[in-house]
Design brief:
With 263 residues, this protein is α+β, with helices and mostly antiparallel strands. Helix content is 30%, strand content 24%. The strands form five sheets. It has a three-stranded antiparallel beta sheet.
């Protein structure tokens, strides 16, 4: 379950490359693009520019390099030529990348054009909730501490946390132990140890937390049609706290990441 220093170095390299994929998306005018066009652009960048492998393609029979979850889609949204991103949408891109046998996993929710204030608040609170979970990571802390920090922040802001999907250990395999729930009680669950690597990826809904899976067997939506947002990072437990392996360059100056670095 824990990783050796050489494995951590390889995971950090995969994380650095994956962060650059989001840098590409940050520079892309998404309005008017189809989610399939985004998928194809990301695949070319990962394969041709980064000389890496999009780890999601072919995993569990999935045919694309990313999940594209728009508005009320909670997770696992399937790219489509007919799914055009429009002004006012929010869209989460969940991407995995494998380099030298080790996988990194991250996601970010984007605001497309002029987005309503209520949607902006949901996206911001989801980002903050992820960081609340990340800040709870340190040797000796418990998995329940992570979930409690996330759910407390969500509830304080009037949002619900999806319970059917969780973070996970990661390394040579995309999904390893442990499962990292985004709700819980402090002081409960598995104790964290130096060298553990896992994802933290809370999904927050504006309405009820209940979800349903659509007929394609992949796409998960909110049961009440409310908006949903998600953020995800791959993190490693260090001797003194936590290292975010998929940290994006734009986050170095952001409030949550800066406060973590100063802690």
């Amino acid at each position: 379950m824990t990783k050796r220093p050489d494995e951590l170095a390889l995971l950090a390299e995969s994380g650095r490359l994956l962060a650059s994929v989001f840098g590409l998306l940050d520079r892309t005018a998404l309005a008017g693009m189809s989610t399939l066009q985004v998928d194809e652009m990301v695949e070319r960048f990962i394969v041709d520019e980064l000389q890496a492998r999009p780890a999601s393609k072919g995993q569990y029979g999935y045919g694309f390099v990313l999940n594209s979850s728009v508005n009320d889609v909670v997770c696992h949204g399937v790219p489509s030529q007919t799914a055009l991103l429009r002004d006012g949408d929010i869209v989460n891109f969940d991407i995995t990348l494998e380099k030298n046998g080790y996988i990194a996993d991250s996601s970010k929710t984007y605001l497309v054009g002029e987005v309503a204030p209520a949607a902006r608040r949901l996206v911001q609170a989801s980002y903050e909730a992820m960081w609340m979970g990340i800040r709870a990571v340190r040797p000796g802390a418990r998995l329940g501490d992570i979930g409690w920090a996330i759910e407390r922040h969500a509830k304080r802001n009037g949002y619900s946390v999806v319970r059917e999907y969780c973070g996970h250990g990661i390394g040579r395999e995309m999904h390893e132990e442990p499962q990292v729930l985004h709700f819980g009680k402090p002081g409960t669950g598995l104790a964290l140890r130096e060298g553990m690597v896992f994802t933290i990826e809370p999904m927050l809904n504006r309405g009820r937390r209940s979800v349903r899976t659509e007929a394609d067997g992949w796409t998960v939506v909110t049961s009440d049609g409310s908006l949903s947002a998600q953020f995800e990072h791959t993190v490693a437990v260090t001797a003194s706290g936590v290292s975010v392996l998929t940290l994006r360059p734009d986050e170095l100056a952001s409030g949550p990441a800066r406060r973590l670095a100063a802690a």
